[in-house]
Structure formats: C-alpha cells, structure tokens
Write a structure and sequence with these properties.
Layout lengths: L10 E6 L3 H9 L3 H6 L3 E6 L12 H6 L3 E5 L4 H9 L6 E6 L3 H6 L5 H21 L2 E4 L2 H7 L6 E3 L20 E5 L6 H17 L3 E5 L7 H4 L4 E2 L6 H10 L4 E4 L5 H4 L4 H8 L3 E5 L15 E3 L3 H12 L2 H18 L2 H9 L4
Parallel strand pairs: 1-2, 1-3, 3-4, 4-5, 5-6, 7-8, 7-10, 8-9, 10-11, 11-12
Length: 350
C-alpha cells in the first residue's frame, strides 16, 4: 500500500452496508468532499440494493481495478466473496470499525435483535473483513487495543465534527433551559440509570424542558412528563438536519461501565457541542480523556444523585454554563476538525 502519492486520479470506492453515520463521520462527509476537490474519484455504492455483485457488471468490474476500497462495520457475504476473489485487483482495503462487535453481541442490556445481528457479524463477517484489510481504522484507543491482537495494522481516527455553529447557544433565561439526550436505543439502559435524577430536576426547575429522541422507547417516567419531548428515533440524515437546526444548553451522555461502552468514541462530546451546549459525561473513557472537568463539560459519577447535583450546578450558573459551552465548541472544532480526516486519508493515496 503506497502512501503519500498524488491525489489527482486516485479512486475510492466505499462499499456500503448501510452504516451511514460511520461512513459520513469518518470519510464521506469529512474527507471525501476535499478528496474530490483535489481530483480524486469517490464513489459510495449501496450494496444492499444489489442481491449479487454480478448485477453491477461490467461497471463494477472496471471500478474495482486499482480502487482503494473502504468497508464500514459489515458487508454481506456475497460482497465479501467478491472482494476475496478480486483482492489482487484492488489497490487497498481499509476496514472502518467504530464499535466492539464482540462486546455488543455479549451485552444483555442491548436490544435483542441488535445483539443477535452483532453476534452474526462478529462470528461470520468480522474475521473475513479483518483478513481482507490492509489496515483497520478504529474510533478509539480502547477499541484499538482490543483489535490489535487480531490484525497487524491498527490505526485510530477520532470522529469528525460535521456541524459547527458560529457560537454556543445564548445564555439561558430563567424559563428557557433546554436539555437534550440523543443516544440510540443501544444506550437506553444508560438513560434509565439517571432517569430519576432527571425527573427530580424537572420538578424543581419549571423552566427546564428535555428532549429525548427515543420516541416510545423513552423510559416511562420521562415519556409521560409534561415537559419532556420524545421525537421518534431518526434516520441518519434526518438526525443531521436536526443537529443543524436545534440548539440546546445542556446535553447528557451517561455511559455506564460495560465492555461495549468502554470502546466507544467521544462522538457525543462533538454532537452536544454542535448544538451549542455543554455536556454532562460519565467519569470514564472516552470522555475523561478529553473533557476538562468544570471547564468545557462536567464529569459525573455513576450515581443518580451526582447527575442531579451537576445538573443543578449548571442550571444555577447560566453565565458560567454558557462560557463552558463556548469552550466546548472551541475544543470540538479542534479535536473534530475535518482537516484531520483529510490529512489522514490523503496519506493513504495509492
């Protein structure tokens, strides 16, 4: 795999199995626009629309030759068969992984269907993709440590900030605090751990509203509260639009101690900052690695009482909370800059 050669004329082919957030955050929305501007050809092919790769012939046959291929998380067995057959014709294969799939398969707190799918990917798909890859690109140091025993070349690429407001959300007034939780169902248990604290804070602060983007999966104690909005879980591009159009003052990122959670990236720090807010984060990696406690976020212990205490602290200090949010946005722009992704992928030009 040659590195550092010219971008003009290079060809990238992302074989998509539907992991759109991963694809966009780590390549398509962060690096691909710049690669195209510099003269590269970048194509995302939704493999789910083709029962067999042969249906894409002869275009795919021509496209594969000399292409740099990216695969994110999973791929169907038929498409892996193709890559294995044509491996000598492609220039390189980069496997992008942002979760510990083995840990997901073993975690009883995750939704059953999700856990079963991750189990199948872990057993049947992951070993084959690891064997195909020139390198494995992972989203956190903990995940790198876990995968390193299974591949000789592991590199870490932190997530990119895709939405960046000009300034943090304006300082809250007494009756205008906006609090948000935007985790997926995979983190329902984490939210449940702090739901009693959230109810207590809502009852004590009538100017506070909470948005939980889980729809009917929202814990009942929150779902039935008059000042809690529960929009349905959103498809990726709808969620991106929501990030661009929404502003909040405070964001929640509880991450209870599980093997699955421990390998996560700090993406929620970037997402909360992208809505102009300051976050409350569990006091563990990945957040303890980047949050300066009390300066650009709060690190919170695994105790609902501590979540309540930290929320009240921020609600009672609107000016300092706004300053923390502004510092969080500045840090997010730094550590999540798409220029880091452009440099990363341009170094991999063949």
């Amino acid at each position: 795999m040659a590195q550092g050669s010219g971008i003009c004329g290079s060809r990238w082919l992302l074989l998509s199995d539907g992991a759109l957030p991963t694809e966009d955050i780590y390549f398509m929305a962060s690096a691909a626009p710049w690669l195209r501007y510099a003269g590269a050809t970048v194509t995302r092919l939704d493999t789910r629309g083709w029962a067999s790769p042969l249906l894409c012939w002869p275009w795919l046959d021509r496209t594969l030759v000399g292409a740099q291929v990216i695969v994110c998380r999973s791929l169907s067995e038929a498409w892996i068969d193709l890559l294995e057959t044509r491996r000598a014709q492609v220039a390189s294969v980069h496997y992008l992984l942002d979760d510990d799939l083995d840990a997901a398969a073993r975690d009883p707190g995750l939704p059953t269907r999700y856990r079963e799918r991750m189990g199948w990917v872990s057993r049947s798909i992951l070993p084959r993709l690891l064997a195909l890859a020139d390198e494995v690109v992972v989203s956190s140091e903990e995940l790198a440590t876990r995968i390193r025993r299974r591949h000789s070349r592991i590199v870490t690429l932190a997530p990119a900030l895709l939405v960046s407001p000009e300034v943090a959300t304006p300082e809250a007034t007494l009756d205008g605090w906006r609090l948000g939780y935007h985790g997926t169902r995979a983190h329902l248990r984490d939210l449940e751990q702090i739901s009693s604290a959230l109810v207590s804070v809502l009852e004590a602060h009538p100017g506070l509203t909470l948005e939980v983007a889980m729809g009917r999966y929202t814990p009942a104690s929150l779902r039935h509260h008059a000042r809690v909005r529960t929009p349905d879980p959103m498809a990726w591009h709808a969620y991106l639009s929501h990030l661009k159009g929404s502003r909040l003052h405070l964001g929640l990122a509880p991450l209870w101690p599980t093997a699955f959670n421990a390998a996560k990236s700090h993406i929620k720090f970037l997402e909360i900052a992208s809505m102009g807010g300051v976050g409350l984060f569990s006091r563990r990696a990945p957040y303890s690695n980047i949050v300066c406690d009390g300066e650009d976020g709060l690190l919170v212990d695994d105790d609902p009482a501590d979540w309540q205490r930290c929320l009240v602290r921020l609600l009672e200090s609107p000016r300092e909370t706004h300053r923390m949010a502004q510092r969080a946005l500045e840090k997010a722009r730094d550590i999540g800059s798409p220029t880091l992704h452009r440099a990363f992928w341009s170094q991999r030009q063949c």
